[in-house]
Amino acid sequence: MYQNKLVAVVIPSYNEAKNIASVISGIPKFVDHIVVVDDASKDNTAEVVRNLSNDNKRLVLLQNSKNLGCGGALATGYKWAIVNSIDIAVRMDGDGQMDANDIERLVEPIANGEVDYTKANRLFSGEAYEKIPKVRFYGNAILSLLTKIASGYWHIADSQSGFSAIGKHALQTVNWDKMYKRYGNPNDVLILLNIFNFRVRDVITQPIYNVGEKSTMRVRKVIFTISWLLMKRFFFRLREKYIIRDFHPLVFFYFFGFLLQILSIPLFIRYIYYWIEYDHIPKVNFLAWMFAVIMGVQFILFAMWFDMDSNKHLR
Questions:
Q1: Which of 60, 96, 172, 176 could form a disulfide with 75 if both were Cys (CB 3.0 to 4.6 A apart)?
Q2: Which helix (H) or strand (E) holds 89?
Q3: pTM of the model
């Protein structure tokens, strides 16, 4: 236990037979349960964990009958934590890229009642640029910016980091069946937490790479997939938080901002057509296009500012 809080570490695992033993061996003694969720691995991950459980009574093995993705495996572990009245659930991956020594730093703010959710931030480290592969570093930076807009947590960065801890109240409030199950899951968790106004904090950690992990993620493909997810979930959050649960006028700013941007498209096409076809720019057309673009941008920026102000107490 940690400060009289039951702590469980949930480890979603897929084909991690090579690394899972070392990950489990590094879990601190104050952790009460180590829950490994085997997501229908094709290797002997489950067998390795089962053998380790003979000498480690903290170890719990859960197995998904079919592959549900990292988010699906996490949901399985979180549901186990809810049923077993866990106070703080820590999410770690089974590939060895997360330092178990950081678990206490993630758990402490929640145990003290300061926040409801903590997550690792590898980008604040002075070694991040050197250690993280460049494509991932820049992809992460772009997705972190988009996640700030989509989630409302403007103070949070490194949104791709899945190394996190969640308190009992948040754990029991969020419907984990509605969580996105594939890559982009850590981003989606932030959006779901924001809808319920849970407090979130970044904890600075060191990035770990080249420890034998084998990633199936393709950054160039995933960045577009997650960007599309974030756009859809952005509108989902606006509806759930600022219309259904508690109305906020920022929805009007976003609405008029997006509307003006859409209206500027046909105005721009007409402007270009007259320029090419007749070598003439209709002044009214040009002014209308500029007005739509400028006012649209202003409306959107004001909406973002309102959103930032509305969520500043969740730091």
A1: 176
A2: strand 88-91
A3: 0.90
Q: What percent of the chain shows pLDDT beyond 70?
A: 92
Q: How many CB atoms lie within 10 A of CB 24?
A: 22
Q: Give 263-280 pLDDT, tens digit per residue.
A: 999 999 998 999 898 888
Tell me the sheet residues that pair with 106: none
In Å, how far are 8, 105, 171, 192 from 174, measured between CA atoms?
Answer: 18, 23, 6, 7
* Mean predicted lDDT score pLDDT of the chain: 91
Write down the residue that tokens 């060895």 correspond to: 96
Higher-confidence residue of 214 and 241: namely 241
Distance, CA of 164 to CA of 8 (rounded, Å): 12
Task: Read off the tokens for 31.
Answer: 């952790």
Q: What is the DSSP letter of 4?
A: T
Closest CA to 39 of 8, 71, 77, 66: 66
The CA distance from 222 to 126, in Å, is: 26
Rounded Cα distance between 291 and 282, Å, is 14
**Any idea which residue has 């592959």 for tokens?**
67
> Regarding beta strands 7-13 and 88-91, do their DSSP bridges make them parallel or antiparallel, or are they unpaired?
parallel
How far does the chain reach from its first CA to its final CA, in angstroms? 26
Nearest alpha carbon to residue 7 among 115, 91, 123, 122: 91
160: which 2 tokens? 């791709």
